[in-house]
């Protein structure tokens, strides 16, 4: 039973939303969900918790909250197990892919990739004894030494579920039986192992998934009951049924179950039980036998103070801290992103020819704070399950007015995250793919875009008229494309044409629709369509799907296929079945297609007109055509990119931050290009002053597009001359010979190529 005194733990979102102007070019950030707390550990100075597979710490001394990721030094993502060695004062982090980190402090993280590097091995469980961690593998038992940070021994005991030391013997539970061997013998020799007969007939020896020693008792859990055994042959049934956690806290045995946890004393008698509202996951306590930290699923993390009840075994509690949830994305689902009106819009649904039934996910990131849609409220409002939200746009006339498409229910209209209206087959020109059976669940919409006159165009999949528009007067019209195709993204180009990729079905291809500026008059409409294309060398592209579209600063249309990107200069080129592909030269001077074979999933264009091209499985390619063709690649092995499977890319043109939506969540990279400014009224450098030994680069921002930048000392000696990337230039604090410049003040001159406008700012270099 809980008491009513509740202290809600609030902390500023600014802790998690670093000011973009202070983020250095070349730096990374992650934007992971911190909503569902699954594991918690208290150490002498910190509380560590796992939320949605990511790590967070809370300082017991000053209340500081920190999140950890690949961008801050972890070596992987998606934490599955978290263990702690009090003797080594270190955490062991086990990831879903069987990679491991030993976490001593934020600056001392050591990777142990042995299990991950052996594809036939997988970690079932981890039991910590002293400075050793027994890794129960599907192939046997491995012993990890915390201090040496390496696998010390490995024993091929078969598919192992749990392990512990009891007296002078090592006990190992496999999926066949419980075995033991003296610690003093050669454990690598399987002849020294024997089947334990102590538990025979009392537990299921093939499913002992939790095991520990509590004083002189061996405690076993076999997925249906928890029992205790002594070496004298005594046995005792402790609990029947499922338990989540088996732990020793403050010299008491703690068993966690679905909705709370109970205590047993050294005589194995139950001394109390704590019933918790909601989805209990785990409990931890180190400093006080009265105060406990609880990982509480969607309620986040809480600290409770126990109040024993003299008249009942049920222990009351009060909150010391509750609602411990950082402001973050609601989920790590991210299908599509767009950066519009200084905010990042994220949808996290899914679709192919059918729907994926992913909970309705719409998230807005603005000024360092996340705003998340509550799909349950939307379901209550409409009477239809809110699922598979595909894309989102913001009304150019109202920055808090959104339209969100879905692969089944039509288009949701929202004010912030409050429901306004559902546009569906009964109140709009949108159509259902199944008009006779549950038609309200088959209104499949995808890409959307506003034109310059504030008319909202919507791609409507699998129907006769696959393009609809809601005009700025509130009127609906629809237009035929290719009959009943699966439409995907929709981009309105500078010449007001609507480009749509058709990603699956009998008629895959690219459709370009031109309403000629007269939406109401269908007689002057034009439709251009191409299904398969031949490039500038008269070679077939051999594509089987089209997945993304973007227009660059020169009006060239980039289209992603499953065989690399292709480009078009006009709608007529689409109709003719002609395209252009990137061609590079190898060391022998022979041409080749640099991204041939890559399945392109996303394309975005930055302020320097570079193309950021996301792929399925090969990370991100950065295409620079400002001089000789240059293509760089970012992947999870050479950068903090959290996954090589990219779903979407969005760029904040004002800051240069490039956001990547992956199958594992969202991360970003601060690039060295921003959109050019209309004038030189706000040119400045950061960080400033700069210490080259600590900050390797300084950014000069606020420049006009493609400015000529000159950096000199106060005597006028030229240190560097270059052209800005859009409105940004990054200087590495070196002089003409590549050496780090001396301490002092340096002048930055930015001018247009014709010299008609210019600006000056200063940089102080500290040595």
Gist?
This protein is an all-beta fold and 767 residues long. Strand 43 (498-504) and strand 44 form a beta hairpin.
What does this 3D model show about the protein?
- Keywords: Signal.
- InterPro entries: PorZ_N, Reg_prop, WD40/YVTN_repeat-like_dom_sf.
- Residues 1-24 form the signal peptide.
- It comes from Candidatus Ordinivivax streblomastigis.
- Residues 47-194 form the PorZ N-terminal beta-propeller domain.
- This protein has 767 residues and is mainly β.
- Among the domains are: 1-7 and 242-326, Thrombin, subunit H, CATH 2.40.10; 327-423, no CATH class; 684-765, Immunoglobulin-like (Sandwich), CATH 2.60.40.
- It is built from two helices and 64 strands.
- Strands 34, 35, 36, 37, 38, 39, 40 and 41 form an eight-stranded antiparallel β-sheet that branches.
- The longest helix has 8 residues, at 375-382.
- The model is unreliable at 1-21 (pLDDT under 50).
